[in-house]
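Retro notes, item 3 of 5
We never archived the inputs for the shikimate-3-phosphate complex last cycle. Fixing that now. Sequence and ligand:
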Amino acid sequence: MTDMQATRILPIKQLQGVIDIPGDKSVSHRSVMFSALADTPVCIRNFLYAQDCLSTVSCMKALGAKIWQTPDDALWVQGNGLHGLTEPAVVLDAGNSGTTLRLLTGILSGQPFFTALTGDDSLRARPMSRVAKPLRLMGANLSGRQNGNLLPIAIQPPETFHGIRYEMPMASAQVKSAILLATLFADSASSVTEPYVSRDHTERMLETFGVTICREGTTVQLTPVDKLIAPPEIIVPGDISSAAFWLVAASIIPNSELLLRNVGMNPTRTGIIDALQAMGASIETVNERSSGSEPVADLKVRFANLRGIEIGGAMIPRLVDEIPVLAVAALSAEGRTVIRDASELRVKETDRLTAVAAELRRMGAILEETDDGLIIDGPQKLHWGDCHSYHDHRMAMAMAIAGSRHAGCSIDNPSCVSISYPAFFEVLQTIAKEDV
Ligand code: S3P
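Structure as it came back at the time:
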């Protein structure tokens, strides 16, 4: 979809208010997929009704699950059991969603029927060999453009389907989850090792569905089960990746203070809090509690003077989606920020290293793009820029925060925020305050 008009972001003097953080995208996807593989109804609360998760809903419906929304905004899923998916009569469309695509490819590789998968322009350019390779080692019968590296792909029933021991070349929850989910349909266990631990929502949620998962260091092992036993209710925590925009915005816009309610605090996701705190941010964690298998808390964040930091290695998967907005924070920090080991950003919705560098430069930023990261010396003052979102939700929101802090900007195709945070611009408007 292409918007007729760019949105104009004006400079904001301060941010004040309380924000209820919308449901976590990663957890929302998994809640629908796993519930559709069980045989009792599941009530999902705080589900993220955003484009990516709706792509998962429509794919699971096409595979035979009954899914409906009730007036209290709960999403209900009634599946037909672990072996109850049925051959879809249509090509499954994952839209913009890498998680829908990679996790479903895992699930579908072990099915006794044919499926075809596609996605939007961005998804059709993103690599699939990272999941196709291990799934083929399990016996998957997968074909597509560039030998199955690019969508559209077709999946035929496998002759045999077995678990594998697999060492992943990169930390990726999507690849790890694809292998683990495929193993649910295999005749033996799988063991997956990552260079660093990526988000573990699949492991946590599958455990609540009665699956035994062994974890040791960066290795996860899953043994096939006869059936998934669903919990009656799943409460989706707020998405820390959405909260991240407000954490950065309040940290860099003078006199700001925000209370972010219901933020998912899974330690495999809280890298942005650790990084900002290491930069000197004022973030207080209150009301810590758990929401099913996931920890949550409220966060109080206020303006602070930031300093540059160096991040890389194990930290990167813990904040992989937050790097565009972290770069915006770095521009307001005293000294040098170095982000390395982040080449995975090049295969996200867009090449986010090149995109962040190019779009911040339109606002006058001086920064260096390296092979696997960014180097930013701060503090810097930006001017107005006419920025591109590349139809990438996190690019659009990161540029909006930069424009708010500095001299404003325009952003093309702003409706791409509907991928993960449909209310983003409304929330920004309600928390923007004049000086008192
Ligand atoms: C996700 C995993 C991450 C992340 C994406 C969501 C998931 O991708 O960037 O937005 O839900 O598993 P990778 O695991 O490929 O890094």
